Amino acid sequence: MYSLSQSVHVREATGEPLPSPFKGLEELDANFRRGELSITAAAGGTGKSMLALNLAVQSNVPTLYFSADSTAATQLSRATAIITGDDVKGIKSKLHAGRFSEYSNVLADRWWQRFNYEARPTPAVIELHLEAFHEVFNIYPHLVVIDNITNVDVGGSGSADEYTFSLEGLCDYLNELARETHAHVMAMHHVVGEYSDGLKPIPQSGLKGKISRVPALVLTIHKEVDGMGGVILNVSPVKNREGREDSSGETFASLSFNTRNMRLADLSANGVGF
């Protein structure tokens, strides 16, 4: 056990926020802190994976990304577009045509950002890759993305109650993993059917399985489409141990989504929905 003064020397990187490209979220004190677990929940196709990928690529921190929901071709094309600003469709065409060498140098600069594409990774696989990352780089990743948490294979669930319990148990496991490695573990998750269109603010109670007990930060995302191809992602901190929260989802920071190059950027410095 430690006194308060001794705790100064044992905290290491725990609690240190990752450099975030999203200033609107920072103004809401919604930071991705090392040693903590967060959950980002949204309807399918709303943009939760884009939030995670933009955080990883734009912050350029050591990252281990478990991409169970997206293939290598999809993530490679998206990440390359975010880095270079080039059109993602052109990038994907070059990838499939074998004309991708022009991007070799810029991708090589991201050598400490690693991806796993297993569709059903187990906790044992997650631990193995974390230890392999440490073996190669002599550090654990600062950011670990689980996309999606329901894709992690923790064994069968025979009922709705068992399903919720297994998700809660998985959250406990991921939270412990964050503490032990001093990584921020960012898990993507789904929402209940009432919010499946992704067009209205999602409260804390909208998370599938109601698994908001463990994470230090819970974000929900709903989108706006302007009819001319413009997309805005509104990110709500519905639980936040370190700062402002609004469990209704009505307080949010707004990010513009450039569908050409997959980049997310602050729509306004002060966010929206205050």
Features:
single chain; 274 residues; alpha/beta; Rossmann fold; 9-stranded mixed beta sheet; 32% helix; 19% strand; P-loop_NTPase; AAA family ATPase
Query: What is the H-and-E element order?
Result: HHEHEHHHEHEHEEEEE
Question: What percentage of the residues does DSSP assign to strands (E)?
Answer: 15-25%
Assign the structural class, choosing from mainly alpha, mainly beta, alpha/beta, alpha+beta, or little secondary structure: alpha/beta
Domain unit count: 1
Output the number of helix runs: 8
Low-confidence stretches: 269-274
Mean pLDDT: 91
Compute the number of strand runs. 9
Task: State the distance separating the first and last CA atoms.
Answer: 42 Å
Question: Strand sequence of the main sheet, in spatial order?
Answer: 3-2-4-5-1-6-7-8-9
CATH class term: Alpha Beta
| CATH fold-level name | Rossmann fold
How much helix is in the residues?
25-40%
CATH-level-2 architecture: 3-Layer(aba) Sandwich
Shape: globular
Using the CA coordinates, give the radius of gyration.
Answer: 18 Å
* The CATH H-level homologous superfamily: P-loop containing nucleotide triphosphate hydrolases
For the report, how would you describe the main beta sheet? 9 strands, mixed
Task: Describe the protein in words.
The chain has 274 residues and is an alpha/beta fold. The chain has one domain: P-loop containing nucleotide triphosphate hydrolases (Rossmann fold, 3-Layer(aba) Sandwich). It has 8 helices and 9 strands. Strands 3-2-4-5-1-6-7-8-9 form a 9-stranded mixed sheet, sandwiched between helices. α3 packs across α4 and α4 packs across α5. The longest helix has 22 residues. It is globular, with a radius of gyration of 18 Å. Pfam families: AAA_25. It comes from Streptomyces buecherae. This is AAA family ATPase. InterPro entries: P-loop_NTPase.
